[in-house]
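Thread: Newbie trying to understand structure tokens

Hi all, I'm a second-year student working on a class project, and my supervisor (Dr. K.) asked me to get a predicted structure for one chain before our next meeting. I've only ever worked with sequences, so writing a 3D structure as a token string is new to me. If someone could post the tokens and maybe explain what I'm looking at, I'd be very grateful. Here's the chain:
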Amino acid sequence: MLVVHALWSPLAGFCFWAEDSTRVTALVSQPPGRGQPVLPPIVAHPFAVTAGLVAAVLSPEGARPAEGASDGQLTLMLPTNSWGPIPSPRARIEAEGRPTRTEQLRPWLVPVVRLPAQAAVDLLLDRPGPAGTDDNPVITGGAWDWLAAVADTAVDLVASGRALPGIVDPAGGRTQARWLPVPPPTAAASGPSSPPSPHCAGRRPTRPGTRHRPSPKCC
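---
Reply by user tm_fold:
Sure, no problem. This is what the structure looks like when written as tokens:
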């Protein structure tokens, strides 16, 4: 079973990588070494899958990869013990015997697929975390759920007219133009009988627990 993770890197943008739970199970069957092994500063993640396999999982059957997608590698700081990197909770389906006590954070090299921002947001919103089955042996990791919630919040800000252009000065010192969120009005300021925002007039209601996209009238 594959567990697909999503992350955003300041240098690489939106990136996706995956763990193979069968490799986790294989490593569990090996006896641990004595003490903490001496490892090089950065080594390849032992149960991360290839970028090509990640790309195949992210693309619907028969669909072409998103325009601008590319393969690469990232160094991630991950919880590590004497066995190596600790698998994510959803990759531990058949590996409950693996020690989970964290010794330290260590860098691990993982293959990733980089996607342009629009393609990544569409993917995060359109692909809910599936339950792994024999027909669809893929589940999404917790970081994917978190990024999907962030993307959903951004869509909600745009749909409700609560995003304004602004200028920011990042730590690097290079001034940049950004869309900035506008805090919602307080209950006291808006009042119980305040009319709905005109920006939301064309927005369709959604069922609890489902994601929505802004309708054309909202944009």
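A couple of things are worth pointing out once you decode it. The first strand starts at residue 2 and ends at 9. Helices lie at 21-28, 51-58, 117-126, 142-159, 187-190. Feel free to ask follow-ups in this thread.
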